[in-house]
Amino acid sequence: MTIWREHAPVAVVAVVGIVVLIGLPQVVELFTLVDVAVYCILAILALSLSFVWGFAGILSFGQSAFFGLGGYAYALAVINLGESTLPIIAGILVPMSFAAVLGYVMIYGRVSDVYFAVITLTVSLILYHLINSTSGPDYVFGRARLGGHNGIPGIPPINVPGDLQHQLDHVETFQISLAVLLLVYVGLHATLSSRFGRVLIAIRGNELRAELLGYDSRRYKLIAFVVGAGIAGLAGVLFASWGSFIGPSVFGIAFAAQIIIWVLVGGLGTLGGAVLGTMLIQSLVSWLGRNPAAATALGFGTIDTNLVLGLVLILFVLLIPQGLLPTMRRLVLERRQPSA
Amino acid sequence: MAINRRHALAATAATIAAGVFPRSGFGQANTIKIGTIVDTSGPLQPFGVQKLQCLQLAVEEINIAGGLLGRQLELVTYDGQSSDQSYAQFAQQIALRDRVAVVHAGLQSSSREVIRPILRRANTLYFYNTPYEGGVCDRNTFCTGTTPGQLLANLLPYMINKFGKRIYVLAADYNFGQLSERWTRKIAQENGAEVIASDFFPLDVNQFGPTIGKIQAAKPSFIINTFVGPGHAAFYGQWAGAGMKKEIPIASQTFGEAGEQLRMPPELSEGIFVCYNYFEEIDRPANVAFLERFRKKFGNNYGYVSDLGMSEYVGIQIWAEAVKKANSVDREAVIKAIESGVAFNGPGGMIVSDPRTHHFVFDMHLAEMKNRRFEILQSFERVQPTNPSGVCDLIANPTTNQQFEPKL
Amino acid sequence: MDYAAYFFIQVVYAIASLALISVGLAVIYGMMRVINFAHGEFLMLGGYAVILPVQAGFNLWISMLIIAPLSVGLFGIVVERLIIRPLYGRVIDTVLATWGLSLLLIGLTSATLGYYQEGSKPPLGSLAIGAYRESGYTFFVIGITFAVMTALYLGLKRTRFGLLARGTMQNPAMAAGLGVNTGRIYAATFGLGAALSGLAGAVLAPISGVVPVIGATYIAKAFITVISGGATALAGTMSAAVVLGTVNQAVTFMTTPVVGEVALLVAAIILLRLLPSGITGRLFRGSV
Predict the structure, then answer these.
(1) Domain for residue B249, yes or no?
(2) CATH code assigned at B188
(3) Where are the alpha helices (DSSP H) in A108-216?
(4) Measured between CB atoms, does A272 come within 8 Å of chain B?
(5) pLDDT band for position A162 (50/70/90)?
(6) How far is C140 from C13, CA to CA, in rounded Å?
(7) CB nearest to B237's CB, from C114, C116, C209
(8) Structure pTM?
(9) What are phi and psi of A144, to 5 degrees?
(10) Which of A248, B283, B284, C61 could form a disulfide with A132 if both were Cys (CB 3.0 to 4.6 A apart)?
């Protein structure tokens, strides 16, 4: 009975997701699919942070860095190799290797939480500065130019393995993005329900107690950190394929912060919250870009996205600190249960 | 002021209404839609707003004169938000939903390279109206901005003749700055001069102390810079603060394009040399008339119109000329019309299309800043666009799709 | 020889400006354990608080040294009351709320003042250092930083407020038990940190100009300096600024500004790896 109650929501989500995957392309216009696809991809990135932070207790400012590494790895590999299967794997393995080294140094070095966050932020910034300055023609990887500030345009999208002619079109990009999102969501949920996941949550709750019970918290945290990096890298690969573009801004402090905002608005400690938060905030940002209301009239001074995001964030923290999903759940549950 | 506010409120209400209610894919029947993405928010705002205003003025002028082929023009506007991801999303939307006849979009070269393939794949005609590093060779794209071959090839020889052969390059660290630096070295070589040092600065660098020291140690004849963005503008203040104004002359590929000279003390900008295809200070009847119309529409608080904004104005006008010549908005017909030769007598001078490169021939003007106004020293007529190694020929090879770079 | 002197001055300047932009954040973090992510925007507001009055005709020095710190300090007290106080103890929520504030401030200034940056020439002319010219303002920045640090040290060590603040920081319950109004101390401390940030932003405005996003150029460096310095506000900031500023400027002189930035970041990581609680976790303990 408990198992069913615990997994029911996930099963529902999976079913709904499959329905959307098949049905949405029939119902909405093509460009909406393009938008939804990128929201799904960013939601995957948010899930990686939600996992690492909400469940493993590691506040990592570096998820965007792994996202960027995945995207760049894919880009450089696919421009050189042509076929996309190996580049996808590269896009996952490169960030994971990087995370393994960085994580080992920090986790086994017993660096505490705040400093962990600072170091991941610093590493992101280092990558940003490094890649930002690779504008010259000397910075090449095989046939691919690193491009510096301008990034790498014209990245070939993912193709069906073995079939170079069949690159993902808009509908397929959407479907693959949503499918991966669902798989990651279900996969993470399964992981968290497993023994590994339970220990992880116990470590986040009280690391000392978990250690005293005999679990090597460092190993669990490192594994979680590396897995999170792989998921973020996969999101990066999909992003590079979606837009045929990747640039150094993904390593910047603004993007790193955005992911944190998505997860927090949706609800830290829930997986669904990360997805919800991402979808809401990204739709808002896009809507603002589509309706530059004041610009045409006033000549300058538009409704800046920062203004809206900032207001949203402050209000959320002060009024809905748990985030949307847990609050919604609580409201629904309170209504269902008769007042005892 | 009252007019502006009323105008603003009405426009805001209308735009919000348009945003809330779903737009039908065809809009009002019988308008020709022009899609545009420029950065009206974020750090690129001063450039983006100017461009949008010039676009709006051009569209309005054509509409008042009766429209194009009997139909009114409608501008579909997106805010690039100084973000390449936004550009990608909105270009997709324009291509897939808005059924536009042409797109005039892009400021930074990175945004252009993101949307160019999207629009090419969607067979949507694309005009890139910003001075840039040159070399784009793509049948679906027309570039109405100046290229280094037009700017540097006239600015550098003047500086070399006047000040000497040792050149110090300060460049913004992205492809525009990088390629411009290559062009500078090439043109220097051709004129018997030498680039003694090149320093590259990411766009957010705003501390130039060490650089100023290095420049003093190197003792160049003059400096040429491709400084872009708010961080780099701080250079001029620090340079003047160190007392260097009288010591080493400065030439710039970008100074004045956001009207920044109006927002700093005159002594900071005094004596800077530039070369563009348009200045507000150009004394031609067409320019005087243009500026009057601009001020009437946008008020006196508009800042400064530079070649960045003028390129958008010209872009729309010359596309309109091509449409009239082709008697159609169909992409293929318009491309053929431009390739057969179109011209437009703009406020800055005559603009003629160059069929092989899909760029344009301009009159260039070399100027020096004197007391916040550009004093035009020399003009060069009919300057051909950059065609690195003469490689780009879209008439002979219409399937070309890349950006060529200078070989040193 | 002249070049060496020029180089030396630039290094001292780098240390000074790094310390100056960090000290406001350090006071708030060191005294209240609050990570104020809107710190960069306090700097930005300080910048506007000198530029706007000067445009309106006020004297530059009065705007910079009085109007800017006062106005940003008052603003800080308001922020503390509205946003920080409800979130005491909730570290993550404070980070997020202050991040939201940062975005909000950027958005407001973008919408009202825009990105039309005002350039200015730093005052105080220029000096000759041998064959090299250096701006006189550079020395002013160094001097101001020295003055601010000294004043802060004396203030915290010698005044009653400083004593109460340090006591409240070390043991709030005890302080409250002794009759100290901890709420007011916190507000005043946050206001002090904000005022320091405002002053820093104002001092640097004539050199760097001010745009709504200029906070972003400062926040990362300030944050890293403060964390590397450790929990003790003054000693930590100064020692971290010396290390990181020297590395930054020395590498910049040898190579490019970008490599200099990277060197600073790498130095910070090494520092944190060796001294995980920051410099003052190990050295200069017990100081202010």
Answers:
(1) yes
(2) 3.40.50.2300
(3) 113-132, 170-193, 195-205, 207-212
(4) no
(5) confident
(6) 10
(7) C209
(8) 0.83
(9) -100, 130
(10) A248
